Task: structure prediction
Amino acid sequence: MAEGRIMKAISGFYYVKSDDTIFQCRGRGVFRKQKITPLVGDFVEFDADNPEEGYVLSIESRRNMLVRPPVANVDQAVIVSSAVMPDFNPLLLDRFLVLIESKDIKPVIFMTKKDLLAAQNLEKITEYQTLYKEIGYLTELVSSKGLEDPEHLKSYFTNHVSVIAGQSGVGKSSLLNAVNPTLELKTDDISESLGRGKHTTRHVELVEVGGGLVADTPGFSALDFSDIAADELGDYFPEIAERKADCKFRGCLHNKEPKCAVKQAVEDKQIASSRYDHYLRFLNEIHSRKPRY
Result:
């Protein structure tokens, strides 16, 4: 019996890396009975007589997991958000941040295409960068082609398991190319660019990039808050979470309640009104969703 990590899952096979060898394994039948699916990123115990024939015997408990993309034990999510083409979208960025925070994954924000901005727009984007930094997020503003300092960028990936998030066209491929030029990604669709054609099976795989692992996945296909309760939402806005103990009422949703420390902080400009507006919008979305039976 040996220990390893699942690096790729495709068609019922799990490719487990142990030391420097990849073992092709199947899952035990008991997983199906227990409705357990091994995920890329899982640490597992397996048994294999040779690299072509092995069985995953057990899965270690996960630190976190994503369903779409299906990957476990992720250290960070690199959210790529372009400053222009497509225009910077703070609402979408906050949506990504809430979803990632809710999975206990550390977000890192890259704002791309700085060089394509007009002067007044650069000032606005720099204000946003400052805002997210003050909240406590690692936030980088980088140019579209040069991605000035690849070694600095690489340091974000070293010794981490990362997922990449962001809408189409924001520069995800350019970012990964700067960190690891051997990838030679040509389109924004990371999965396709790694050499898989449009008609091949989409699967998740951990790819070595910049001294770490990046989940090469078809991307975040669900951006709804179906797993988040109304009273949890504030926990995923760090600047709201740190003030909730000061609200008069326990379970305060920071909406219509009196003597709310969060609303006071918005009034005092200690919490950005844009972030609070997005919080209220997401809260309304959670309240409006239909119950699942």
User: Anything to note?
Assistant: The domain at 2-60 is CATH 2.40.50.140 (OB fold (Dihydrolipoamide Acetyltransferase, E2P)). Residues 188-201 have pLDDT under 50 and may be disordered.
